[in-house]
Specification:
By secondary structure, the protein is an all-alpha fold. Helices cover 73% and strands 0% of the residues. It is built from nine helices and no strands. The termini are far apart.
Amino acid sequence: MARPRTRDYDELRRDLLDAAGRLLAEEGPQALSTRRVAQEVGSSTTAVYNLFGDKTGLLRAMFLEGFARLAREFAAVPRDGDPEADLMALGYAYRAAALANPHLYELMFGRPIADFRPDESALTQIQGTFDTLVAAVARCVDVGRFAPSDPYDIAVHLNALVHGLASLELRGSLAGGDQADRHWRLALEATFRGHRTPAP
């Protein structure tokens, strides 16, 4: 297959990753074959192999794409305003990324395919999303909004919280709409209160 123009290449790559994610989420691992993925977008298995190498390469690319989309949501969050407001916005950015990409979410954080594990290089590439969270927490600690503590530890707690909320919402367990919004707001606000510096 001749290499597509850059715009065509990027579009085809994105379409294949989204199609693979939908198949995995909707029909399970048994549906995820290179042939089926290619059929979903009207392409050929040759295109899949040229772009990703093999099925493992496709899974790795899906994993990285999910985190790349999360990183883009994070990048849109201000980092020079009120530290707590900026940190809260990161929580909602995580939610937005999960809701926009439910077909990639499980592969990012779960083990829907038992024999796929991201390699060390992939794990290094996604570290930036967590580092963004740690930096935002550190600002809250540095300006005295949060009690003195290791920002990494607080980031782990917050990451667990938003992951749990997103997982529940994606499974329809937060009732959706205004009720889901309320659960997110209450959970984040309560967690922030727990980390704030006590009043003198």
